[in-house]
Each structure stands twice: as C-alpha cells, then as structure tokens.
Design goal:
2 copies of one chain form a homodimer. By secondary structure, the first copy, chain A, is of the alpha/beta class. Chain A contains 17 helices and 17 strands. At the A-B interface, strand 2, helix 11, helix 15, strand 13 and strand 16 of A face helix 1, strand 2, helix 10, helix 14 and strand 13 of B.
Chain lengths: 438, 438
C-alpha cells in the first residue's frame, strides 16, 4: 500500500497496541469484562436512547419485523448480554493452553501453546447484543477487533462502543484494541489490510459473504453456501425419516443448515414419498421431483438447476437414487460441503456415509438443523466455516486462536546433534502443567 | 473455469477418485505402503538407471555439488527411503481420530473427528527420496497428491512414480490418487485449480514460494521469509550467548532458521560484542553494526536495509538496544514471524518475550536452528508454516488433516429444543473410544 487513509493508519496503530491485551493475564481480562458489564448498567439509559433512535428510523424505513426484533436493545436484551459476559469471563482461559509438550533433550523443553490470532475483522448483522458478545469473546481470547455492524444499528453500536471504551479506560488492558467502523468505504479499506487483519468473519447474506471472499487476500472464516442434502437409505425407518426431513426443511427454512435436496433410495421411495408428501402438505412445501418422484406423488417437475438451488424457503428438490453410491456422488457433485445426513438402520451404510461424504457436518438419523455452535455445545459461536483448513463447521472461541512453539534451553546448540555427538530424546510429556510463558 | 486443458481434467478426475483412498482402513493403507517398499526393491535397477541419467545431465550442466548430492539415488538413499516407509506405516492412523466427543442429549452423540484434507499440491526440490516420502505421507493420511519435483530429477521421478503406481495396482486403494506433473505450464494450471486442490505446499527459494502465494487462490502452506532475530538481554550468560549466536548464525547459514539480526542490550554490549567478534572471526562472519556497535568492535556500518535483510550467509546485522521493549518492537517491525530467541537469565524477561513476540517459534537460551520438524520430534516434516491459521511453525502429518463433525441420532429433530420441550445435556465424554465412523 503506497498511501494510507485515516482508517488504514488506525488499523495499523490498533495492531501495534494489541500486545497489551494479548499478553495480559486472565485476571486482567476478567476484571475488564466485569468493568464492561458494570459500565453497560451505568450507561443503559444512554444506550436505550440511542437504540430508540435506530428503532424509529427502522420503522420509518419499513424494516421487516424480524429485523426490528433483532435491532431492539432493552432491559431483557441487556440482561442476556450481562449473562453472556459472565459466562465468557468464567470460561477457561484460551490463551497459553499447552497443546503439546515434548522433551527434546534433558535440558531442552518444547511446548506448543495456544495464542491469540491477532486482529479479527468482524462484519455482522444489525444486532446490538451481538456487538457486546463479539467484544467479550475477543477480549477473553486476546484478539484485537475491528467491528462493522449492520447500518440499521448505527446509533446503538456507537453508544455501546462508547460505554465499553469508557469502562476499559480504567482497566489494565485499555481500550485501544477496539475499532468501530461504519461506512461501505471503510469495509473496502478493511478488506485491503492484509498483514494487519489476521482473520475476517463476515456474517450476512450468501451474496455478501461471497463478495468478501472474492475481494480480499485476508483469510476469511465463513460459509457462502448451505446446500444440505439428506439421503434416505432403503433401510430407513419411514416414520422417523419423515419427521427428520420435515424438521430439516421447515423448522427454519431460511437457515443455511436447512435441507434443500432429498435423495431417496428406489426401494423405499413409494412408501416414503407418500407419507412425506402428506406431512409436507401441512406447511405447503413445494416439491421439485425427478421423473420417478413425479410418477409417485404430485409435484413440480425438477429441472437441472434444482439440484444446485438453495431455496431457503418451504421448497425442496427430491430425486430417487439406485444406491448409496449414487447418493454420495450426487452430494459430492452438487452439495456445498456444509451439512449432509443419512437416514438408515444399516450400520455399514452409515459408516460408509461418514467416511465418504466430505462435508463439515455428516449426520445420521437426525435433523440437519442441529449444525450450530450453540447446539453443538461450543459455547458462543463465532461463525460456521466450510473451509477445510484451520476450523471447519460451527466455530467457537478456539477458532480465534493460533499457536506458538515455545522452547526453553540452557545454551543448547544444534551442532552437536548434527555431528552425531548428541541424540534427541523426543520424550512426550504430560500437558497438565502450566505453559512456560505463565 | 470455462475451458479445461488435459491436466485440469486429470486433476478433476483425481479428486473424484480419492474417496477410495480417504475412506480406506489403516490396514489397507499399511498393505499398500508395504507393496510400495517391495516394489522399489524390485525396480531398483530401473530407478538407479534413470537417476544416472539425471546425474549425468546435472554434471554436464555444472550443477552445484550440493544439488548433485541431493539428486543422487543409490543403495544408501533407497535404504533411507525404505526405513521411512516403515516408520510412516507403523505410525498412528491419523484418519478418524476423535478430537472431541460430546453428548448433546441421551440419544444424540457428537464427535469431532480428523479426516484427510483432500488433494495436496506439492512442489519440491530435486530430491528423488523426498518424492517417496511425500507419497508415503499422503497415502498414510489419505490425501491425493499432485507432485511437481525439481526438473533436475525428471527421469528419477518418472521411474519412481512408475514403480509406485505399478505396486499400487495390486492394492485395495489403487494408484489413481497420484499425479506427477513436470512443466512450468503444468504448475501454472495447478495454481488455478481452486476447489480441486485443498492445499499447496511449495518448497524452494523465497522468491518461488512468494510467487506461488501471490498467484493462487488455493491455501498455501509455507514460508517465504526467515528473518530470525536473537535478543541478548542484559542478564544473559555471555559465554552461553556467544555459543548460541555462533551456532544460530554459522551452523548452516543458508537455512531459513539461521539468525540474521542480533539485538544486544546496552548494559552487556561491550563485553558480549568483544567475545562474539572473536568467535565470529573464526568463520569470517561479516558484521553490519549500528553506531554503538561500531564504537565497540570493528565492523561494517549498518544501513537501513540491513535490518530487513535475510543474508542467508556468514553475515549478520547487530544493533544495541536500550531495553527489552525496544528489542521486541524491532522484532515486531522487521522480523518475519518465523523464529526469534531471547538469551537471558531473568525469568520475567523470558516470559515477557514468550508472550509479546508474535512468531511461530519463540525460544529462550537455545539456537534458532532448532526450529525444524525433525528436531521438534514431529516425525516427517511436510513444511514450515508462517501462517497463523491451520498450522504454524514446523508442520508434520497433522497439517495434512482436516476435521468433520459426525453426529448420530435416533430420529432427533430440532423443534422440541427450540420450543423448550427438551434441553441439551452437553456432556463432555472421553475421547478414548474409537470414532463412530470406524
């Protein structure tokens, strides 16, 4: 970069400042979290007032009720946020966890230890409570954060960041590791800050996530597509299968983990499709079926594009297949490696599905809708990743961590080992003891 | 990609074929490794003959003795390769290892399990033995491999791949997961195969690795720079410090983990620099010193570029600093986040260095030259990564693995949990038992 605009310089400064946070003790970070919680209570009227302004604007702009509900920040949301801060504060310190410990020689000790990634760039929806959750997670995990919230929450986000920064002034870690950005041009600058931002986490529409992935050299954690499939094996329990397919499709159809394609084994197709159709009719689910499906139930004839369509609505593509292999091939060719499930009572078919389907989440006999950080028990979810590197599937605070190899010697040199005078002992040691950096 | 050349189609086919390897049992893979070893012995005369041709060409082209030594494939190298295959075969199965196991409810079990990344693109130096090592590691870890070796080893690589493929025809996993490519235009095609190649591992010159990183959207594991520094704290043991600095600089100066910059605390500078100079003079190490260094010992005046120079030779930059903070700032601004060390007898200074220096390897009181997969006890090293995501520092077979979340239910749906009828138990379980896919 030959020229820096104002935001670039701020991000470069932020990166320099994070060492105070990233090298801080868990005690300092816990105290800072408490200060933030106390501050939010202290400043709540200021925050509610800012949020009212956002809510008014939203109503004037005919914003959808769902967005307005997410935008609201009231006593109830504040309590949720305070509970969240408490939970994050009490969770295990993710910094300086020993992942491997090995003696290389009597007086040479190696440890692989977890450390913060550095600076996270988080682009998220218009949910003020999400801002507090993200800041808490970054504080706990020792990562600097550049925040860009949905524009509908502009006033609320400003008020929250003002309160948080004020509270942190009195802490040992300061507040210069948080930066709130607002405009589209700020996002454009953010995407160019390779080397200063370690990880971008975009949340929002598929289109937006894809745009971020295609317009930055910074690693991106996220998922742009969620074309999930269910294979109904010939041994599937029909009643159970119908329930699972109904839940996977209709429980929340606009979610990325909702099912979009059903692959039904020919030997079970007739019985299964009739019962499924009856159930789907309750919610008026539109079925796009291949020729065999059309010969069994009343449906819309499927066209080629249907096998690659993420409906995100009460709509589904159904194909009859001759074998598990055909189902797996279909998922490999058309799926998005997000979440796929098999319904089967045959152990070897289930194992084959687990081994052969190359997706972040591979399920048997349960709804695809379980693919979620909270449901998985990961604590707070920072995102869902369809990348195969670093983190895959729902990602918790672990996804914000990197590692360092720490070594402690007593003047050890490599020459005697290379010359054959000394030999490495390479003894694996317990990882229970605290890291040498603590 | 709108048009596919011949190589693109081959890589797309290879990707389809890998499921036979990636879903195979450890027994099948062990048998295949044995077949490869037996085959190399069977075909050794053919391989030696091909290697002789490469050696002749290399001598005619006045190739350096070091390259010729690496290029040679004889009885001794064959034995090394056979030992390596045996070691890889006997190592723990990296596929299907349970990393987390959690009960979500009585009848809903979640496992995070290790799985192969997919297809690795490996571009490596003219070392025929490295080809066999890479193929063995990919076989063991269930990854398909596209190989591009140094051009000086063309005949040897062809002979080795011919032997390996012939041996694998008789195995349960086949040989269609290995592809040898040869030309520069093949590499250009490889770099464009996003979505079909999961990870590129380029080995070679800094310039080449940087070229790869800048010319592909495929994730790259590697390191382009190795600007390693040592900070000599005021409490350092002078004799130990001189030994460690001498080893770090001169034991193998062209390695990426050789030290390039020394930062010496002002309170120890006089004594330390005099003794270091005496030792460095044994190897005629050229010292580029700042003004204070110039006032203490005879040296070349350092210019601004010296602080950013990776000499990869018997040459070093030395600066006197006023504090540990100044040293850390210098490393943050000029280092390459590869390997940095502190020499100190002060525990709190060592801990501060561990916490504040953001590098893959952070050492105390030992040579930077220890930063290496073999020395670290990782078994075979696939590369050294300066990325902070996925894998950092020397990388063993773990770096070739991804994960899947496997879930097993009994018809479970999300609705009753969302409606508050049921609650998750989220009970952490032991990871000792085999994965549900086994």
């Amino acid at each position: 970069m030959s020229e820096f605009n104002n935001l670039s310089s701020k991000i470069i400064d932020l990166r320099k400042n994070i060492v105070r946070l990233s090298s801080s003790s868990d005690d300092y970070r816990a105290t800072a979290l408490n200060l933030i919680a106390e501050g939010l209570v202290r400043d709540k009227e200021m925050i509610y007032k800012a949020n009212s302004k956002d809510m008014e604007d939203a109503r004037e702009n005919n914003t959808t009720p769902a967005l307005v509900a997410r935008l609201k920040f009231d006593e109830h949301k504040l309590q949720g946020v305070l509970d969240g801060i408490k939970m994050v504060g009490e969770s295990e310190d993710p910094i300086g966890k020993v992942l491997e410990r090995r003696e290389l020689d009597d007086d040479l000790l190696l440890e692989k230890v977890s450390f913060p990634l550095g600076v996270i760039g988080m682009i998220f929806e218009a949910r003020p409570d999400a801002l507090v959750q993200i800041v808490s997670l970054c504080l706990k995990s020792g990562n600097g954060i550049v925040l860009k919230g949905g524009k509908e929450a502009t006033e609320s986000n400003r008020a929250l960041v003002k309160s948080i920064k004020k509270s942190l002034e009195n802490s040992k870690i300061g507040s210069d590791w948080i930066l709130l950005i607002e405009s589209h041009s700020d996002v454009a600058t953010l995407l160019k800050m390779e080397g200063y931002i370690d990880l971008l986490i975009p949340r929002g529409s598929n289109k937006f996530v894809k745009f971020v992935m295609n317009n930055t050299n910074i690693p991106v954690m996220g998922h742009s597509d969620g074309l999930c499939s269910i294979f109904v094996d010939e041994t599937a329990d029909v009643a159970m299968g119908v329930d699972v397919c109904f839940d996977s499709k209709t429980q929340y159809p606009s979610a990325c983990n909702a099912v979009e394609t059903l692959l039904v084994h020919k030997n079970i197709a007739k019985e299964f499709l009739h019962k499924l159709k009856t159930k789907f009719d309750e919610k008026k689910v539109i079925i796009h079926g291949d020729e065999t499906v059309q010969s069994i139930i009343d449906c819309v004839p499927a066209i080629t594009e249907d096998w690659d369509t993420e409906y995100l609505a009460d709509e589904i593509a159904i194909k009859v297949v001759n074998s598990e292999d055909e189902a797996i091939d279909h998922i490999t060719s058309h799926g998005s490696h997000h979440t796929d499930a098999i319904l089967s009572q045959d152990e070897s078919n289930i194992k084959k599905f687990y081994l052969s389907v190359d997706s972040a989440d591979v399920f048997a006999n349960c709804s695809t809708r379980f693919a979620d950080g909270y449901r998985f028990g990961l604590g707070a979810e920072v995102g869902i990743s369809t990348s195969k590197l670093h983190a895959r599937g729902p990602v918790g605070v672990k996804g914000l961590m990197s590692t360092k190899y720490l070594m402690r010697g007593n003047g050890n040199t490599v020459a005697p080992y290379s010359d054959g005078e000394k030999n490495y002992t390479h003894k694996e040691l317990s990882i229970e003891k605290e890291a040498m950096c603590k």
